[in-house]
């Protein structure tokens, strides 16, 4: 298959109203740059609205627009991975369909790639973010991630980025069903350049990232790049064991029955909480091992449009 100059990967989940807008704006940018060899890959992540229908319609009118459709909702990260796996560009740009990633940055990203950068990534400027809970949890996640993984990832890093074909080749080798692309690409340590941007307001619809999805993404990032949580649990377990031994020695020489019952009850409560919390953490690691061991498919493609 003949390589194209630029591939632009856009995952879509219930974005029927935004698809024509994002495609139009992206095409205007690449045409302005006189790039005739390009492809825009729209990945339908199991949408329940008319997203797939819109993708098919656009693909029929324009052979530079290509479409993939999942059998079900596999998630944003795997939709990005599928688009990258099926891309054919010398450089690949990934962005969201909700227009919060300003397409006008594409020109600057491509120019930076011509200067020799293999990764041009973007970082959100969240100073105007009104959701205090989101700001605090976001900062907390990045600090925990950096501490546990020892990977330097900027606060506010987004999935709006450009990568060259050498980075794409590495991503295509990945088989992790819980892939966290921001951490993965930062860990590659290719020559990188950072661009700050202010997210635009959503034109249509609302954010598809619920608290549960954000939490799962954060946990995938943390547990996918570090064994430190297991080491921390081991250390806490040793400390609790020593404290428990101390309590029982104390009970052997202390005669008060009331205090004995209280100490035993409190000790059992703390130990029970620690055991269940540890099992919860272990389950994340076991789940990853289970899927990798049985080599399950990360995603299943139902339909392709304009793709071999």
Automatic annotation (TrEMBL):
InterPro entries: Glyco_trans_2-like, Glycosyltransferase_2, Nucleotide-diphossugar_trans. Pfam families: Glycos_transf_2. GO terms for cellular component: plasma membrane. It comes from candidate division TA06 bacterium 34_109. Signal peptide: none annotated. This is Family 2 glycosyl transferase. CDD domains: DPM1_like_bac. The chain crosses the membrane at residues 232-254, 261-286. GO terms for molecular function: transferase activity. Residues 7-147 form the Glycosyltransferase 2-like domain. The keyword Membrane applies. Keywords: Membrane, Transferase, Transmembrane, Transmembrane helix.
